[in-house]
User: What shape does this take?
Amino acid sequence: MFKEGILKGKRILITGGGTGLGKEIATRYLQLGAEVWIAGRRGAVLEETAQGLMKAHGGKVGTHAVDIRDAQAVDAMVQHIWDSAGPLTGLVNNAAGNFISPTKDLTPNGFNAIANIVFHGSFYVTHAVGKRWIAGGHKGSVISILVTWVHTGSPYVVPSAMSKAGLHIMTKSLAVEWGKYGIRLNAIAPGPFPTEGASKRLRPGGSFEDSNDINPMRRIGQMPELQNLATFLMADGCEWLTGETIAVDGAGYLANGAGFTGLDKLTDADWEQARAMIKAQNDKDRAGRSA
Ligand code: HXC
Assistant: This one.
């Protein structure tokens, strides 16, 4: 879809770039000539991804282990990239946390576990990168990976829906405030593009394809569709496009509104089982973080 080397000269940081959607976007950016930096909580996972990508596609993938909930650590990471490689040209706010739960059962810690990653963490990264762009007189492009619930809301994922809606408004607000610096901000609101992290926490025991028959295009997303949209928004040539959140969901949210309404049918026993499956995935991920 894009000419070879269209992202040559770009240096792009992708949070949560070691796995899932972030890894898919990193792969396409690297293939198209960008220097890519991936950040995440698990250093070993980042390293494995970086080595695998460079082996397959050449180019340069830098890694930085960081928890984006820690503003100081985020600032130190961005300074390290500036010092060791040079200014970034782009940022993809992809790192996220989410699990399905009846809202009445959430503890403040449960709410914060998600809001601190998605809402606070994404702001910390955007701020650390943006203020350096402004100070150095550099242009830049930010893409945040959101979700169509920013338009509809969504039951059973309320901390995520609230946090992503905040980033939707950050995108619009900073597009206006930072337009004069040549900094643009856009967002992508993907419908179901299955990844391990999302499947295990949002569809435990089920499948994203369960909702195929209600999607106007009768299917889930294909990863190249997301990668191509992320490339279009990061490449040069359409810089006047800023402040937009673009859905890529086969018109799913227009047809069906909020997601997860089907979870109304779950019994207490079903929720107990879902919680256990989500916990198993969280424990597995946590073990990887201490490695
Ligand atoms: C209720 C839960 C819970 C659950 C955790 N908690 N899981 N509450 N139901 N299933 C509560 C815990 O009880 C605890 O509160 C608090 O949350 C913190 O739990 P920890 O496990 O200690 O948190 P932490 O290790 O910081 O992990 C953060 C996380 C985890 C968000 C809970 O899932 C994570 O790290 N996820 C990152 C990857 C991820 O989620 N990927 C999917 C993203 S998909 P108490 O009070 O007991 O201490 C996405 C959108 C996809 O974002 C859209 C698709 C359409």
Q: What stands out?
A: The radius of gyration is 18 Å. Residues 96-99, 101, 105-107, 109-110, 113-114, 147, 160, 192, 197-198, 201-202, 275, 278, 282, 285-286 surround hexanoyl-coenzyme A (CB under 6 Å). The chain has a mean pLDDT of 96.
